[in-house]
Amino acid sequence: MEERLYGYARVSSKEQNADRQKEALRNYGVSEKNIFVDKSSGKDTERGGYKALRDYILRSGDTLVVKELDRLSRSKTDIKCELENFKARNIRVKILDIPTTLVDFPAEQGWILDMVNTILIEVLGSIAEAERKKIRQRQLEGIEQAHKRNVKFGRPRAVKPDNWYEVMHKVKIGELKAVEAMKIMGIKRGTYYTLIKRESEKK
User: pTM (2 decimals)?
Assistant: First the structure.
């Protein structure tokens, strides 16, 4: 059976792009149509593109190529589990930033490749996990500092339109229905009921 080559790229947010990773995968020989991309955190493996590739597309004899080890996950435990899973299914993983994973050893020397890669992956997996914890710590420190400056998080507080009381009076006496009132005031359903709830809590 002919070897099939697939690539996987991941960035942590929708604002980022995976062009650098995709270019590296294409340069290695992965077809554009065989590159899967997720825009999601690497804290775990619960990502749509990755799960589809791992669970439904990759099969025995295939090769998965990633630019960096932490594209699979930033958790060392997850990385080890994923690599063991691929190995058990006879799916080879090549990591462009770990050149030894790209070398094709003769079958009788495969144990050398496994040993070297296991050591490298253990070290780099630990680094990736430490980096994730550092990022999380920075986020928590940033949130704490923002709270001290009274910075508010979440959605902006709903504001009553200028004609709120006039329109709501007509709703109350039955001249207008809720849907009509929303259109007249130019607000969405969620905002409408949020404002009503806030008014009722004042009473």
Answer: 0.58
